[in-house]
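Morning run. Coffee first, then this:
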Amino acid sequence: MNPRHCPDHIGIVAHSSPQEPDLEITLNGKPTPIDSDPAMPLLWVLRDVLNLTGTKFGCGVAACGACTVHVDGQAAKSCVMPVSMVNGKKIKTIESLGTPDKPHPLQIAWIAEQVPQCGYCQSGMLMAAAALLDRNPKPTDADIDAAMTNLCRCGTYQRVRAAIHRAADMAKVGVTSSADRPPLGARAPSGGSAAREAANVGVRS
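And here it is:
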C-alpha cells in the first residue's frame, strides 16, 4: 500500500520523500521537467500541467488535428501521444510561433486571407502549416493538400491554402510585420494592431 494514500488517522503518516521528475522536454526552447503520469497524453500535460492552452482538444483519436504540435520539428497529434514518448525531445506549441512585435508570416497571412471563422482548429492548422513550410518553403497546391490533413468544421480549406501560399511568398521576401507584407490583395488591417492580432491567431484558449 502506498503510504501517501493512507489516512493519517489510522496511524500511518502520509509522507513520501520528494523525487525529481523522471521526464524532461525542451518546450518552446526551454528545458522543462515534467511531473506527471508518463501515460498522460502530451496534450493534457501541455494544457493542464503546464497551462499552455493554445493547443486544443478536438477528437481524442488523432483524427482532427486540433492538437497538433511539433515534436523534433515534425507535426504530431498530441492527444494520443503519451508524454513518455517525447521524453528528451524538442516540443513546440502555438505559443512559440510568433510574438506581437514579430508575428510569424503564417499568422499575418491567416488574418489577410480571413482564415479564422470559429477559430477552434486554428492552432493545429497553423502548426501543421508551419511544419510544412519548414521542410518545403515553396509548396504547391498538391503539397499543401497532402500535408494539411487537419479538419476544419467551418470549411475554410481554400483560404488555408491561399494563406500558406501567401506566407511562403512573405517569407521569401523577408516580410516580418503586417505593415510591409507584399501587395497580394490583402484584406487585413495594417499597422501595429494587425501585428498584435496576427500574433494571437490560434493562441486564445
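The domain at 105-200 is CATH 1.10.150.120 (DNA polymerase; domain 1). Good start to the day.
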